[in-house]
Amino acid sequence: MAKSKYEYVRTFEFEDRCLQNCWIVVRLDGRSFHRFTSSHKFEKPNDKRALELMNRSAAAVMEEFRDVSLAYGQSDEYSFILRKNTDLYNRRQSKIMSAINSIFSASYVYYWNTFFEDKKLLYPPSFDARIVLYPTDQNLRDYLSWRQADTHINNLYNTAFWGLISMKGLSNNEAEKVLSGTVSSEKNEILFKECGTNYNNELPIYRKGTVLVRKLVNLPPSKSKKHVICPLHVDIIGDSFWEEYNEILNLKDLILNKNFKPDDIFYLVKRS
Questions:
Q1: Domain limits of the chain?
Q2: What's the N-to-C CA distance of the chain in angstroms?
Q3: Residue in 93, 90, 56, 50 with CA at minimum distance from that of residue 71
Q4: How far, in whole angstroms, is CA 73 from its chain's centroid?
Q5: pLDDT for the residue 175
Q6: Shortest CA distance to 151 belongs to which of 212, 214, 236?
Q7: Does 32 belong to an annotated binding site?
Q8: Residue 69: what are its φ and ψ, rounded to 5°?
Q9: What beta strand segments (E) does 113-222 contain?
Q10: Does 75 appear as a known binding residue?
Q11: Model confidence band, residue 272 (pLDDT cutoffs 50, 70, 90)
């Protein structure tokens, strides 16, 4: 590029590289999503189609950036975990955060009709973003445990809250008073006795959120190896998940997953 007398303005830019050897977490949150969900009449306490749209949008981010090794989502938020040895955009915070946010937001609009064919998108959604660095594997696991625990706490409350409204005819204020100061076991009891609902029978996608993982699989009919992204609704607080997907923390390449079933839900990565 030819130099000009105006090029000095580049000196106002500041260095914002993420610290080396740290896990990079980009978390997106829906901005003013209470209004957005009300305007589009999402089902309460959970709208499965809305959650699946979030998952598809997150998968689009993982399709674009191979260094996103895992993603976790619930409600109107998604966390993207970049390998701690990534050199994506020279680890520049602003570039990583803005690229992931823009791809996710654009995908949310792009795939809207796939999941809400009977609802018009009234106005574009928006998401805010932040980057947090975690220096150890345990820090990263604790972060994801925190988000999954938050999923359980919020969903249990919302399930009980809307159950009291829809099944018992309580007002919003009355439902809030019934649940005020209650612990998890008490909310479970209220749900069972007052609403006839066993919380453990609620769909795992509501109770546990969604974790997106990468797999290398054989896809028929060609049986060629393909890179896919699979949504799972499993516990990520205990050790089992991390033992099964040990390549995430160990920064290893994917190995062929022989337990994959072609009828499982997955997103094919076209840039394999």
A1: 15-147+207-271, 148-205
A2: 33
A3: 56
A4: 2
A5: 96
A6: 236
A7: yes
A8: -85, -20
A9: 127-134, 210-219
A10: yes
A11: very low
Using N-to-C axis directions, what is the helix angle for 184-195 and 172-179, rounded to 10°? 130
Q: Does pLDDT of 108 surpass 50?
A: yes
What top-level class would CATH report for the domain 15-147+207-271? alpha beta
Give the span between the Cα atoms of 62 and 59, in whole angstroms.
Answer: 5
* Annotated binding-site residue? 4: no
Flag whether 235 is marked binding.
Answer: no
pTM of the model: 0.94
Q: Are 228 and 266 in contact (CB under 8 A)?
A: yes
Distance CA 28, CA 104 (A): 9
Which of 80, 98, 90, 103 lies closest to 23 in space, CA to CA?
80
Cis geometry, peptide bond prior to residue 45 (ω within 30 degrees of 0): yes
Phi first, then psi: give them for residue 108, nearest 5 degrees.
Answer: -60, -45
Mean pLDDT on 69-86: 98
Q: Is 19 helix (H, G, I), strand (E, B) or coil?
A: coil
Whether residue 118 is annotated as binding a ligand: the answer is no
Task: Find out whether 33 is annotated in a ligand binding site.
Answer: yes
